[in-house]
Amino acid sequence: MASVELKDVRKAYGALEVIHGVSLSIADGEFIALVGPSGCGKSTLLRMIAGLEDISHGEVVIGGNVVNALTPRERNIAMVFQSYALYPHMTVAENMGFNLKLSGVAKADIEKRVAEAARMLALGDLLDRKPSQLSGGQRQRVAMGRAIVRDPAVFLFDEPLSNLDAKLRVAMRTEIKTLHQKVGTTSVYVTHDQIEAMTLADRIVVLNGGNIEQVGTPLDLYRTPANLFVAGFIGSPA
Ligand code: ADP
Ligand code: MG
User: Fold this and answer.
1) In what residue span(s) does the ABC transporter domain sit (predicted)?
2) Which of 62, 147, 157, 187 lies 20 to 30 Å from 82, alpha-carbon distance?
3) Does ligand 1 lie within 6 Å of residue 18's CB atom?
């Protein structure tokens, strides 16, 4: 686990700056929801935390280390996206263990970690299935399992449930909450569903046009939104 520190982070694509100097301290073990309208910079910010983007200005510090100075393995960050590309020819267990195998982890250790993650995500009975034999929700759980087995320092989620139907989304939301209560990994969760943000997050960050409008607990934002934009987004009567 690790804390995450954004220090006056900016991102420009060519001449166009899309993240305008974002600063934020995320505590070790905290669950942050990052919300805001389409195009406001949520995915860009997430990729910057993951060390997948050149940072135009400022820095991202994870567990005391500047992220872009670390190798991907040293960063130990897991990302879960909405399109969870599983390998179709591999079983659930093989999908979950594949990255560990690439990293040279011993077979017995891989089996142990996969079994543990499968237990947490209720995938124990499905380990020998192929992705084509799974439902959408089960596939998303495998994608999460693949991330969990690496025991990441930080979990980044980019709208992981947006491809699922409403009923499944609610069920998966509960699973993510339970999972965080069990493993307590520092998490940044991008969503445009304010109910998802309200239920999951310790604190919500409201992003608008590459700037932070407000950071606060769900209750803070609901009771005392900083402005009309936040009030409109959170859906409070202000
Ligand atoms: P969100 O995830 O909140 O919908 P993004 O982070 O994807 O927003 O995008 C933020 C802004 O940056 C948008 O205006 C988008 O068009 C722009 N953008 C994102 N990626 C690139 C890129 N590779 N090149 C140029 N512009 C980009
Ligand atoms: Mg996005």
Assistant:
1) 4-234
2) 62
3) yes
